[in-house]
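Support request from a user on the community tier.

User writes: "When I paste my C-alpha cells into the form, the page sometimes reloads and wipes my input. The last time it worked, I copied everything first. Here is what I submitted, just in case something in the input itself triggers the reload:"
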C-alpha cells in the first residue's frame, strides 16, 4: 500500500536531524534541545479552573481486612471488607466510602444491618450512633466487584482505571497464562474494595485470598498463613501491620514461579526479596531483578533510613496498563522487563527497578497529600535512577541517562507549575514535569546545598513524616532546618512556578585590565519567572584553574573575574547540574581547551558540539574527531559519531575523521549504540560496496546484540537484497527480538512479500504492551494488502482492543478511515464492472465480500464515533 514504505521509514528509521551550521554558539548543558521553543503553558489557557485541594479528611481508616474469592469465568471478585475506622476530629454518625461499579449485598456492624445509600460510585453508610474521634468502630461490607462491567477511562501514563484485571481468565488464549492483578493509582482500588480512595488515606491491611491450589498469590505485607481447603482451594493470608496508602494495596494471582532472594538488614536478619515470573522466565529472574538487594542497601545507607517494610517482592504481569507500580513491598512490572541474556546485554531495566524501590521511601513511607503534590513522589523516584547509576557505574553513565530523561521534559512542549493546583484531571499530573523535570530540580538542589546537607535534609523529611502525608512546604522546611537558609526563592520558582531559564552568556576581556566580563541574559518569555540561578563558572588562565560561585538574579547581569596572563577557556556550569538552556558565545580554542579539561560527559559533549559547529578546517576536524573517538566513555564516542553522521553528504569522511577507527568501532565498540552508529557512518563512507558487504558479513556472523543485528539487516536491505532475504530466514529461525522482528515487518511491507500473515499475527500476539500499537499498525497494513478475510479479521481485532490503544488510537483510526475510503472506491469500481458482466458469478462473489467488509469498517467507525474525511 501507499503508506507501507512511509510507515517503514517513520517507525524504523526515526532519527534526529540537527543543524551543522558553522556557529560558535552552543547550548551549554542539554544542547540537544536546540529546536525547543517555549509554547503556551497549560496554566495560561483561557477561563478559570478548579483548585485541586487535598481531600478533606472526615474519617481515619485504621485497618482494612479483605476476604476475597475470584470468580474467573465471570471476572467477578466476591469480597467481604471489615473496616475499622474512627472520625478524624469532628463527631460523625456516617461513613462515606468510594466503591466503583460494585454490587453491595449488605453492610453490618456487630452483626446488625446498617442503612446505606449507594449511587454514583459512592457508598454512604449510616452508623449505629454518633462516634467521637476517641472512639473506633468496625463495619462489614459484603460485596461483589465487577470490573469488566464498568465504563473505564485512562491516560497516556496509566492506560486504564479498571482497577482489577482478569487476564485470559478462561484460558482460551494459547501461551497466555491466566492471571489476576490490580492497579490502584490513582483512585482505582475502590473498584475491588470499598475504601476512602485518596492519596491522604492510609490504613493497615489484611488480605485473605481463596484460590485454586495451583495458583501463587501476592499482596502487601507478609504471608502469615497458607491453608489448604477441603474443596481443593487454598487460603493465603497477607498482613501489612504498618499503615500505608490505600492506592498501594494490591493482589496478584497466577501460576507464577517464585524465585527467592534475600536482603540482609543491619541487625543481621534476613528479609525476603522474591521475584514472581512466568515459568519460562524463571532462569532470567535474577538477571532481570538480581541487583535489588544491593539497591536496598545503597538507598537505606544513603538516606539514613533503613528499608521500612516487611519484604520486597516484584512480579511481572501481562497486559499491564502502566510501566510499573510501587505497591508497598509488592511491585508490579509490565512484561517489557522480560529480556533474555542477549537483550539484557543491550538494555536492562535497572533504572525502573530503582525507581519503584525508591518510592518505598518517597510515596509509600511519606506520601503526597494530594495529586497536586505528586512530584513529592515521582520526582524522587525519577532522581533515584541517577543516584543508582552514579553509585554503580559512575557519573558519566548517570549524566548520559539523566540527559535523556530531561529531554523528555523539554520535548513535552507545554509548561505548568510543578505543584499544579488547577490541573484538568488528576491523570495530567503523571507527566514530564512530575517525573523528568522534578528529578532535574532535585539534582540541582543537591549541587547547591552540597551532598551532606541535601541527604541530611532528606533524612529529616522522611523521619518527621514517616507513615504520614506531606506537601511541598514540608520538604522545603526539612531542608531549611538543616541548611539554615530560607529556600522559598528556590521552591517558589521551581516547584510553584513554571518553565526554566533560557539564558545566553557572552564574554569580553581586556588583558591590560587583567579581567574578563561574563554577561548573562535571561531570554525566557516575560510570563515566566526571572530566575535566581546559583551559577558556577570555571575558567583557566596562565595561573591555572579557577572556580567561582555566584547568583544570577536579574534578566541581564554582568559579572567580572580577574585573570593572569592568557585566558584559555571559560566553562559555564562545569558539573552540568543546572536545568535550562545556556547558550554560550565561545570560541573554537575555548571549546578545544574545555574538552581537554572536562571531567564529565556533559561538559565534553558541550565542547564537542561547540567545536565541531565552529570549525570547518578539515585537518583540525580530523585531529579532533580522532582524539574524541579514542575517549574511553561510550557516550562521548556516540556524540562525535552523531556529529559525523550529521555531516555525511557535506564532506568526504576520510578527510574529517579516521575511517579505520570508525570501522574498528563497528565490532569493538563497548556499547551497542556505538557499534550501530559506527555501522551507519561506515556505510555512508566512500568504501566500496564489496568492502561494506564484507564488513556486514563479518558483523552478522559474530554480533550478539539484537539492536546491532537489526542495523546490519537494514543495510543489507539497501546493499544486498538477496543476502537480506537469507539473513531474515536465519533471524526468524534463530533469534527472537522485537528490534529484528519490526525490521523484518517493515521489509516485508516494503517489498510486498506475500504469504506472511502468520508472521504479522504472531508479531502482534507476542508484542509487549509497549509494542502492541506498532505491531497492530503493521498487522493492519499487511492485512490491507493481503485478503478480504484478513481485512475482516483485522477490524475485529481493532474493535476488541480499541479503547486500550491510548495514544495509538489516532494512528489506528486513521488507517481504518483510509481503508474504508479505499473499500468504497473499489465497491464503486466492482459494482460498475458487475453491471457490465452480469453473468460473471466470480465477480459477484468478490463484490459481495467487499461490500460485507466495507459494512464492517463503516460500523466500526460509527461505533467509535470516528468521522470519515
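"...and here is what came back when it finally went through:"
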Amino acid at each position: 500500500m501507499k503508506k507501507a514504505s512511509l510507515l517503514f521509514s517513520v517507525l524504523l528509521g526515526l532519527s534526529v536531524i540537527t543543524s551543522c551550521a558553522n556557529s560558535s554558539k552552543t547550548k551549554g548543558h542539554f544542547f540537544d534541545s536546540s529546536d525547543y521553543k517555549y509554547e503556551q503553558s497549560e496554566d495560561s489557557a483561557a477561563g478559570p479552573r478548579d483548585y485541586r485541594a487535598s481531600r478533606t479528611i472526615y474519617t481515619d481508616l485504621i485497618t482494612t481486612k479483605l476476604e476475597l474469592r475470584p470468580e474467573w469465568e465471570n471476572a467477578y471478585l466476591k469480597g467481604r471488607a471489615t473496616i475499622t475506622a474512627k472520625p478524624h476530629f469532628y463527631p460523625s454518625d456516617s461513613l462515606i466510602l468510594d466503591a466503583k461499579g460494585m454490587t453491595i449485598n449488605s453492610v453490618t456492624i456487630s452483626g446488625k444491618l446498617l442503612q446505606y445509600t449507594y449511587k454514583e460510585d459512592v457508598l454512604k453508610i449510616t452508623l449505629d450512633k454518633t462516634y467521637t474521634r476517641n472512639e473506633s468502630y468496625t463495619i462489614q461490607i459484603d460485596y461483589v466487584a465487577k470490573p469488566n462491567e464498568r465504563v473505564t477511562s485512562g491516560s497516556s501514563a496509566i492506560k486504564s482505571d479498571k482497577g482489577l484485571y482478569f487476564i485470559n481468565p478462561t484460558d482460551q488464549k494459547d501461551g497466555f497464562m491466566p492471571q489476576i492483578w490490580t492497579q490502584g493509582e490513582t483512585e482505582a482500588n475502590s473498584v475491588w474494595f470499598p475504601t476512602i480512595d485518596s492519596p491522604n488515606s492510609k490504613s493497615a491491611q489484611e488480605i485473605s485470598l481463596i484460590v485454586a491450589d495451583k495458583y501463587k498469590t501476592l499482596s502487601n505485607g507478609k504471608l502469615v498463613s497458607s491453608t489448604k481447603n477441603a474443596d481443593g482451594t487454598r487460603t493465603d493470608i497477607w498482613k501489612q501491620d504498618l499503615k500505608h496508602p490505600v492506592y498501594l494495596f494490591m493482589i496478584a494471582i497466577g501460576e507464577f514461579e517464585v524465585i527467592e532472594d534475600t536482603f540482609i538488614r543491619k541487625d543481621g536478619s534476613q528479609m525476603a526479596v522474591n521475584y514472581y515470573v512466568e515459568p519460562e522466565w524463571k532462569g532470567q529472574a535474577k538477571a532481570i531483578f538480581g541487583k535489588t538487594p544491593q539497591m536496598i542497601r545503597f538507598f537505606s545507607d544513603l538516606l539514613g533510613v533503613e528499608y521500612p517494610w516487611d519484604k520486597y517482592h516484584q512480579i511481572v504481569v501481562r497486559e499491564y496498563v502502566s510501566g510499573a507500580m510501587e505497591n508497598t513491598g509488592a511491585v508490579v512490572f509490565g512484561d517489557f522487563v522480560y529480556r533474555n541474556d542477549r537483550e539484557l546485554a543491550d538494555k536492562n531495566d535497572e533504572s525502573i527497578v530503582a525507581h519503584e524501590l525508591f518510592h518505598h521511601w518517597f510515596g509509600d513511607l511519606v506520601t503526597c497529600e494530594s495529586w497536586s503534590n505528586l512530584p513529592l513522589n515521582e520526582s524522587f523516584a525519577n532522581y533515584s535512577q541517577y543516584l543508582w547509576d552514579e553509585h554503580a557505574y559512575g557519573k558519566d553513565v548517570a549524566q548520559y541517562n539523566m540527559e535523556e530523561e530531561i529531554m523528555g521534559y523539554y520535548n513535552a512542549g507545554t509548561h505548568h507549575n510543578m505543584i499544579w493546583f488547577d490541573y484538568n484531571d488528576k491523570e495530567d499530573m503523571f507527566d514530564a514535569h512530575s517525573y523528568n523535570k522534578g528529578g532535574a530540580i532535585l539534582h540541582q538542589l543537591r549541587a547547591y546545598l552540597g551532598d551532606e546537607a541535601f541527604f541530611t535534609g532528606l533524612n529529616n523529611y522522611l523521619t518527621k513524616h514517616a507513615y504520614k502525608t506531606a506537601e511541598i512546604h514540608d520538604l522545603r522546611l526539612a531542608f531549611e532546618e538543616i541548611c539554615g537558609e530560607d529556600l522559598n526563592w528556590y521552591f517558589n520558582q521551581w516547584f510553584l512556578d513554571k518553565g526554566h531559564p533560557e539564558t545566553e552568556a557572552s564574554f569580553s576581556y581586556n588583558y591590560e585590565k587583567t579581567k574578563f566580563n561574563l554577561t548573562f541574559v535571561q531570554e525566557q518569555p516575560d510570563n515566566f519567572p526571572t530566575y535566581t540561578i546559583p551559577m558556577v563558572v570555571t575558567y583557566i588562565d596562565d595561573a591555572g584553574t579557577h572556580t567561582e560561585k555566584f547568583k544570577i538574579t536579574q534578566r541581564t547581569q554582568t559579572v567580572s573575574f580577574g585573570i593572569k596572563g592568557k585566558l584559555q577557556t571559560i566553562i559555564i556550569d562545569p558539573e552540568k547540574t543546572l536545568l535550562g538552556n545556556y547558550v554560550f558565545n565561545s570560541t573554537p580554542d575555548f571549546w578545544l581547551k574545555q574538552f581537554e579539561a572536562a571531567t564529565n560527559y556533559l561538559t565534553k559533549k558541550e565542547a564537542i558540539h561547540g567545536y565541531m559547529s565552529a570549525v570547518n578546517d578539515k585537518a583540525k576536524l580530523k585531529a579532533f574527531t580522532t582524539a574524541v573517538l579514542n575517549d574511553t566513555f561510550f557516550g562521548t564516542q556516540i556524540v562525535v559519531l552523531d556529529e559525523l553522521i550529521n555531516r555525511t553528504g557535506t564532506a568526504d569522511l576520510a578527510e574529517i575523521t579516521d575511517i579505520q577507527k570508525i570501522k574498528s568501532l563497528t565490532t569493538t565498540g563497548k556499547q551497542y549504540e556505538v557499534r550501530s552508529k559506527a555501522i551507519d557512518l561506515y556505510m555512508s563512507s566512500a568504501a566500496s560496496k564489496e568492502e561494506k558487504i564484507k564488513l556486514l558479513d563479518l558483523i552478522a556472523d559474530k554480533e550478539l546484540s539484537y539492536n546491532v543485528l537489526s542495523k546490519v539487516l537494514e543495510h543489507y536491505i539497501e546493499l544486498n537484497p538477496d543476502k537480506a532475504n537469507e539473513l531474515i530466514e536465519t533471524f526468524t529461525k534463530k533469534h527472537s527480538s522485537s528490534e529484528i522482528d519490526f525490521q523484518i515487518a517493515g521489509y516485508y511491507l516494503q517489498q510486498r512479500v506475500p504469504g506472511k500473515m502468520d508472521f504479522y499475527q504472531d508479531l502482534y500476539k507476542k508484542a509487549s504492551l509497549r509494542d502492541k500499537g506498532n505491531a497492530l499498525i503493521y498487522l493492519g497494513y499487511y492485512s490491507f494488502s493481503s485478503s478480504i478475510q484478513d481485512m475482516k479479521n483485522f477490524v475485529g481485532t481493532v474493535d476488541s482492543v480499541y479503547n486500550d490503544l491510548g495514544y495509538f488510537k489516532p494512528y489506528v483510526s486513521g488507517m481504518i478511515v483510509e481503508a474504508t475510503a479505499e473499500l468504497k472506491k473499489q465497491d464503486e469500481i466492482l459494482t460498475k464492472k458487475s453491471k457490465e458482466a452480469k453473468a460473471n458469478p466470480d465477480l459477484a462473489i468478490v463484490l459481495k465480500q467487499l461490500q460485507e467488509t466495507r459494512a464492517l469498517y463503516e460500523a466500526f467507525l460509527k461505533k467509535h464515533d470516528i468521522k470519515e474525511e
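Agent notes: The reload is a front-end session timeout and is unrelated to the input. The chain has five domains: 1-22+633-753, 25-31+499-614, 57-255, 369-494, 769-863. Residues 1-22+633-753 form one domain. Escalated to web team.
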